[in-house]
Design a protein that fits this description.
CATH class of the largest domain: Alpha Beta
Helix content: 25-40%
Number of strands: 29
Bound molecules: ligand MGD, iron/sulfur cluster, molybdenum atom
Largest sheet: 7 strands, mixed
Number of domains: 3
Strand content: 15-25%
CATH superfamily of the largest domain: Dimethylsulfoxide Reductase, domain 2
CATH topology of the largest domain: Dimethylsulfoxide Reductase, domain 2
Radius of gyration: 25 Å
């Protein structure tokens, strides 16, 4: 496949990367600092999943600050605001401090502190009981991020295959499936977007600058600085829109109509990259014919984007091709037919010839570092529970919401235990009511977290983890422009009785009689074993935080392999896989081999479509208690069009509540009356409105979008949960 693996060769590779001088400078700087009582320790950030290389500075043995590691290609020496505020996680007074067992009723948030031995002993007993009564598959695990690797290993060794993360069905799943159907590979994480070299960048609801994924934001600034044309499509005038030459305030949910019309212009005006399409394309002729009806005039009443603007922006994209990058987005679960929208984004890029080209999508590489040689996991006789009968045939990762459904219904077989690592399920999955209903069916809910989240509040057992600045984690073997390995290592000690995930996972395995799955004694031994296999040394990574591999050609024009892992081995303008599925299941909707437009549900009168997104200083619902980040943004606001606000007699600074289509009300939220949003929708930053009592700083500050997202549109192809068909009225408080 396209996942190119290379043997990186330490010093030689560094010289090739031109980084030896930075490396020397960094080592000299560390030596100078040491003389003045300052000590620097490299690691990588965990305030989100971008995993930026960082350097922490200790002053008199105490954690002082954290900055980017200049050697690291992701951060290039600079962290985003969240990463910089990361030190706050270590002295957050709301932190979990010791293992807790539920005192009485679930959800009451009353606990008894116990020893680790008792906590893990209890957990092991519960796991054994579930296995004995229902089989190990009835224990499910939810996990988000690298830190879950060891616990997943323990649970697989115990015998379950039901392991899921919200990053698929609630995040990038539709995008990845849409791109895989088209190019045979997905945009990846970190995305393989060559934003820095784009001459034209098209952002469709990718709100870079609010969405703070560091490398992308830095490259976005570079692209703006070098005069690239920016085209932003968003119902809200985002930060990115403020940098755009063309801002298209689209009617929410109509992006596929715009994409089809853009492609119609490129094809009818013969502006597409005919050579590229001829060389790599499959099924272009019928695809081109299918576009005929989707003229800019057809798209106008759907999108509210005038035909001349659609033509002008299409021509502008063509002028800069192949260095025109139509960003694939990331959180792509919007309206329930999102894989098809993402396929349209992929096809537009294919017409522009940007996949595999400079200024488009580069071809990433990864260091060849094998996993630890563990014994094979026990074989399960049961299929995974989340996607019975493959009803979503293109889901290639497990569906969190599928496991939740099986937990509620007991079908295809019962799920009796949840192990939850670093995901706040109650707030990450839409329709909180269903998550709580599922929890009622469990014999065991175990949560590993750093703060007493909403999900921890419902748990039978809560295990306090050391923060990322207090622990080792698994290695980050990144698939990126230049291959590299990053190390997370402890910078300070945990203040109380918190433990790192690897320790928890290993101790639990020992209690379950699974010692043979943990041949290593501690994490350093594990890391060394993996590294030494390819001639790297833990000591080098501890000193530099990173080892870089050899740069390889990353564009087709420079010799990167142009391979497409689709059935035709080409870029599929006409999807043979979707065709096959449609043929086998006549009458089943949504599997058209070329994207079709499905209009969104109309907005009821007097109501607004609820949209949500990110703020630069917060990550989801995980940073609101961080003292530093809380101070910068203590609560969220409701963006409402200024005209609508004045019609309702409301002004900025008023407190309002939102009431959704089912009458569910939010907590009070501050109003922001603004011209920066269309009149048919409202917007809020996700992650606020905490209701867990232990989150004292964040408790009842702002409102939660999740509580209002009770109508879910499921993507037939891959089971993603479209969340943008919820409508709210604004009620003064
Ligand atoms: N309504 C709505 N739902 C959404 C989204 C949205 O925008 N709106 N976004 C979706 C997207 S794109 C995603 S990716 C998912 C994200 O969903 P999640 O990954 O569930 O994100 P969080 O809600 O921040 O939950 C992370 C949890 O991990 C805990 N945590 C933080 N650091 C550590 C640590 O070091 N160790 C451990 N053990 N725990 C830690 C936090 O305290 C928090 O409880 O949510 C999805 N769901
Ligand atoms: N600061 C910060 N940065 C983050 C994160 C974080 O928690 N905090 N989380 C990271 C993660 S895991 C993810 S998945 C990404 C998510 O970030 P992105 O993938 O960039 O975007 P979304 O959250 O889906 O989209 C929000 C934007 O889409 C617009 N929008 C809503 N509906 C429509 C529509 O119908 N059409 C169009 N064209 N636009 C629409 C909204 O107005 C908003 O500007 O952010 C990442 N970066
Ligand atoms: S993007 Fe920001 S929060 Fe995420 S890893 Fe990088 S510095 Fe940390
Ligand atoms: Mo995400």
């Amino acid at each position: 496949m396209n996942r190119r693996q290379f043997l990186g060769i330490g010093a030689g590779a560094l010289a090739a990367a031109g980084l030896t001088s930075i490396l020397g400078g960094e080592r000299a700087r560390a030596a100078t600092l040491a003389k003045s009582g300052l000590r620097t320790i490299p690691t990588f950030c965990d305030l989100c999943f971008w995993k930026c290389g960082a350097v922490a500075t200790l002053r008199d043995g105490k954690l002082w600050k954290i900055e980017g590691n200049p050697l690291d290609p992701l951060s290039r020496g600079r962290l985003c605001p969240r990463g910089t505020g990361g030190v706050g996680a270590t002295f957050d007074p709301d932190r979990l401090r010791r293992p807790l067992l539920r005192a009485r009723v679930r959800g009451e948030e009353k606990w008894n502190a116990v020893s680790w031995d008792d906590a893990l002993g209890y957990l092991a007993l519960k796991l054994e009981a579930i296995k004995a009564a229902h089989g190990p598959e009835s224990m499910a695990m939810f996990s988000h991020g690298l830190g879950g690797n060891f616990l997943k290993h323990t649970l697989k060794a115990y015998g379950t295959t039901n392991i899921a993360a919200p990053s698929f069905a609630q995040c990038r799943g539709p995008r990845d499936v849409g791109f895989r159907l088209t190019f045979g590979d997905d945009p990846g994480s970190p995305e393989r977007t060559d934003i820095a070299n784009a001459r034209c960048l098209v952002l469709i609801g990718s709100h870079l600058g609010e969405n703070m994924h560091n490398t992308q934001v830095q490259e976005f600034a570079q692209a703006v600085g070098s005069g690239a044309t920016i085209i932003v499509v968003d119902p809200r005038f985002s930060v990115a829109a403020s940098k755009a030459k063309h801002y298209l305030p689209i009617r929410p949910g109509t992006d596929t109509a715009l994409l089809l019309a853009w492609m119609n212009v490129l094809v009818t005006e013969k502006l597409y990259d005919a050579e590229y399409v001829g060389k790599y394309g499959y099924g272009f002729e019928p695809f081109a014919a299918s576009l005929a009806e989707f003229t800019p005039e057809w798209a106008y009443p759907e999108t509210c984007i005038a035909p001349e603007i659609i033509r002008e922006t299409a021509r502008e994209m063509a002028r800069h091709r192949p260095a025109t990058l139509v960003h694939p987005g990331r959180h792509s679960n919007w309206y329930g037919h999102d894989t098809q929208r993402s396929r349209a984004v992929a096809l537009l890029n294919a017409l522009l010839g940007s996949w595999g080209r400079r200024g488009g999508f580069y071809v990433p590489a990864q260091m060849d570092l094998p996993g630890y040689p563990y014994p094979p996991y026990p074989k399960s006789t049961k299929a995974k529970v989340d996607n019975p009968d493959q009803r979503h045939p293109f889901a290639y990762e497990a569906l969190t919401t599928g496991i939740r459904e099986a937990t509620i219904t007991g079908k295809p077989y019962p799920i009796k235990g949840w192990m939850v690592y670093a995901t706040n399920l109650v707030r990450a999955l839409p329709d909180e009511r269903l998550t709580l209903a599922a929890i009622q069916e469990l014999d065991l809910l175990a949560v590993v977290d750093v703060i007493p989240s909403e999900t921890a509040g419902w748990a039978d057992i809560v295990l306090p983890e050391s923060t990322y600045l207090e622990r080792y984690d698994d290695l980050n073997v990144e698939l990126f422009r230049e291959p590299f390995i990053g190390l997370r290592q402890p910078v300070v000690e945990s203040p109380d009785d918190q433990k790192p995930n690897w320790w928890i996972a290993r101790e639990l395995a020992l209690k379950l009689g699974l010692a043979r799955y943990y041949p290593w004694k501690d994490i350093e031994e594990y890391l060394s074993t993996r590294l030494e296999k390819r001639g790297y040394h833990l000591a080098d990574l501890k000193r530099d935080g990173i080892v870089l591999g050899k740069k390889q050609p990353i564009y087709f024009e420079d010799g990167a392999p142009a391979e497409f892992a689709t059935p035709s081995k080409k870029i599929e303008f006409w999807s043979s896989q979707l065709q096959q599925h449609a043929d086998a299941h006549p009458g089943v909707k949504g599997f058209d081999p070329v994207p079709r437009y499905e209009p969104p549900e109309p907005c009821p009168s007097g109501a607004y479509r609820l949209l949500f997104g990110r703020a630069p200083v917060h990550s989801f619902g995980r940073t609101q208690t961080n003292p530093i980040l809380h101070d910068v943004m203590p609560e969220n606001e409701l963006w409402l069009n200024a005209g609508e606000a004045s019609r309702l007699g409301l002004r900025s600074g008023d407190r309002v509540k939102l009431r959704n289509q089912e009458g569910i009300e939010s907590l009070p939220i501050l109003l922001k009356a603004t011209e920066r949003i269309r009149a048919d929708c409202v917007f809020m930053v996700h992650g606020f409105g905490h209701t867990a009592k232990g989150l004292t700083r964040a408790f009842h500050k702002g409102a939660s979008d999740v509580q209002l997202l009770t109508r879910i549109k499921v993507d037939p192809l891959m089971g993603g949960t479209g969340l943008n068909d919820n409508f709210v009225s604004v009620v003064p408080v």
